Amino acid sequence: MRTRQPAVRKRGVRLVSHSTDISTEGITCPAVSPRLTEWVPELLTKLRAHTERTIREYATTDPWRTSAQLLAKILPAWKDTEEPWTDDVAEAVAYTRAITTLALTYGDEPTTTLSAYHQQRHADLTDTVTSIGTGRGPVNADLGALAKGPVALHRELDAHPTTFTLLLDGDAWTSLTDRRTGVRALAAIAVLANGFDVRVVASPRVHRHLVKRYPKWTECHLDLTASRDGSPHTDHGQTVETAWKAIRDLDTEPGKRRLLGNLNPEYARSYRDLTTDHAVDVADGTISRYILDLEDRELVTVDRCGKHNTVQLTDLGERAVQQCLDDTDDLIHPDQRRLGERLTGTPHGSTSTVSPRRSDEETLTPDEWVAATGDPDADAEYVQWLTGPRNTKTHLHERFSTVAHDDAITLVDAHPHPFDDGRVAYLSHTNDQTHVVLQWGGPLATLGRLAGALLSEKALSKILTPARLGHEFEAIADGTQAYPVERILRRGHQVGWYSDAETTYGAWRERITAVRDRLLAKVAELTASDDTAARATLFADLHGLIASATQLYHAAGVELTTTIRLPDTDALTRNPTQLQDLCTFLAKTVPKQSVYGIHAGYRMLFEDRPAKLRRRLPYEVAPDTQVDLTMSWVLAGPTVTDLGEQITTALRGELSDVRETIADGTEHAPPLKIPVVDGTTYPAIRRAIERVAMTHDVQWTPRERQRLVRLCLRSFSPADTHRACPYDVVASLLGALNESPTPTPAEVERAAATRSPTRFRPDLPPTATKLYATLLRAAQPCGRSELINQSGISASSYDRRISAVSELERVQPVHRNGHRRWTTADTTPADVRSTPLLTHRQTTATERVCSHTSTWASQQSAHAWTALFTPHLMHNDTSRPMNTDSIAPDHQSSPRGTHQPTTIHRTETPSLHSKQGGETQ
Questions:
Q1: How confident is the model at residue 467 (pLDDT cuts 50, 70, 90)?
Q2: What are the φ/ψ torsions at residue 830 (nearest 5 degrees)?
Q3: β-strands 599-600, 594-596: how paired?
Q4: Residue 435: which of 470, 404, 477 has the closest Cα?
Q5: What's the pTM value of the predicted model, to 2 decimals?
Q6: Residue 802 Cα distances to 471, 788, 793, 811, 822, angstroms
Q7: Residue among 244, 252, 174 nearest 214 (CA)
Q8: 146 touches 188 (CB < 8 A)
Q9: Residue 187: which of 216, 165, 209 has the closest Cα?
Q10: What is the DSSP string of 303-337?
Q11: For position 232, what pLDDT does the model report?
Q12: Consecutive H or E run containing 604
């Protein structure tokens, strides 16, 4: 027999069996059953003496002070006097107080020598220490108390983790009928493993039982997967059936279904965020109970080690949401869903978005899907999530966000379908990105839609949450600022509607939603009104509301992008008034969404009202710095790039209107640069490909990337141009990535061939495009009849176009059984193999024009530069580094005062800002 050797102690769960050499040392707990109330108190009783000795080594003075010091380290939330304690925090505090008192007040003194009062007190303290986290403690808290109490305490104090040896009761585990009881016991073992070296002793029979009945837990904590006994792959049908079994009895639990449907497998959400989520709509005291039940079903996993408990979907939970819940979080059997998808298509919408079903939805392109907004006057919503049907991969967020250039206005020649209802706006977010998609409806209506999306209930419930901002907005401070957060928000970021009465998240949310609703009601009232004064006031209020929102998004670390769709640019350009409205909208709106550190860029550069100028924080201007935008912009529509010059002119006019003291060099301020970028050029397409490669970790070589750029330009450029729609490029790349982790250019072209015939190879006649796309998608060489049938063209069209198609680079004839057939080959062009790599074959036209004349600017820096659209390359850069300067806080300023011109630059861009005079936007 082999001798078991002491193992190096480390936190975690390890299996001890006949096949391992791990010893069974440390605190031993025999007959561990699936009912944690039968063994956790016993384990904590055995741990108590060790914990008391550890505390006495830490401190020997007053137990109250010692416990306060320990709590400050292991449980910072206990000092929060504004936010009520959760049950697990309260019980963890009680445990820490009790164990410290037992260690420092009573020590090892026998209880028989104590007075009756102290004997009773000792018994009560002992009960608190040994019942924590079992549901029978002082406030009946769950495993979160165990994690925040003894586990956190020993993580802090133990130089080496204490060892637990748990001997599983085989008969109790194998005869257990209620699986959820076993799940909770295993969850307790996992919680203990965060602070201790937990060694589980299981017989081969129990081992097999755990692997079969609790595969997720054993795979995660013991690495005992079913793949060791059989196939390494899990049967898809069994997985779906397991998800259905886990969720099917929630038919009478709508709150739990809504909670499950609003969780995410990619990032965790805190309990307190869920309580403020209007889509969840579950009471504060009920959230933890619901989550515990979902955890028992292995649908969610809970992290109880942080200041706030967080929860996210497991793989099983994700499958349950995808396959067993519909778009209104009602139960639907997976077989019924699959049958419905085959017969009627996937329902439109996403969580918290209800829209009509469409029988032809399986044929909709992503753009058509987005355009089908539904009717807000019926059952659709004004703000909807930008997600495809719940069980389809449409990559909509990535499709829209990849084409946007950071801190710029990107112009994209696209052909967006008009929204069914232009009043609808879409919202999409990841952990650190938020994207708004809306349709141009005139300056006032568009501002209203943007404000409504940024501060919608969806945004406040999922993005600007208490966890992200903080109960008193403390989460936005990075700890390096010399000012309290209220002052940073009010006088730095210039956030409006944030008075002394709104310094807590709840009060601010109530106020800001009331302001939002009031202004949106006025938008509906004044959109077609000729009341110039009322419209000017509303424009100013909406600009202030949007600027306040974007400053908060920026302070919270969220990157913002807005896409404005212009389905009919031809009508826009034919109407000078409408075109001027668009250009003025951008000139007035874009510069207001700007920031320099913690300072609002607009107030630094353009504000000239003395009262406003006095309400600023002091700032310093560092060399070679600039004002950044808090939101990037994309304009998408047919021939939108042709509007570059008009947009640049409008921006240049606004940006040149900096405060007089900045213009004459009296005040120093960083420049504002607003690039206007043509998103269809070679450099822009190359950038889109590189962003997709970075996001998906695709290992393309430089030569492959160059081939991809050329391929995309060839596939999507109209005749006689070298410009492609980046949306088509991104969609093709994402489609290819669904098939291969590192798709070749040939595979990308095959994915591109699935695009609409009007989008793919627009340089070819439509029937030739259909023939070529059919060949690219075909698995085998095709003959005449096959190509006619599969491409859906006539025989005469085939005869007219096959010669042109046969001349394409990848098309090759082959002979099978005496018949000529056509196929495509992955050939690398000779010029690509022989010629050196080029960084790009097209430059982005840029002209930088100084927005104003300034003595200080000419000596120190160039303030306001504007990047213009020109058909040829021009560079005229006279900027110099600017000196550091500082402005005193809250000083009395002249009517025009403390900022420096704005610079516009980057590939093609101007800088701008707006003043109030007459009807402003």
A1: confident
A2: -60, -35
A3: antiparallel
A4: 404
A5: 0.67
A6: 68, 11, 12, 10, 10
A7: 174
A8: yes
A9: 216
A10: E-SSSS-EEEE-HHHHHHHHHHB-TTS-B--HHHH
A11: 32
A12: helix 601-605
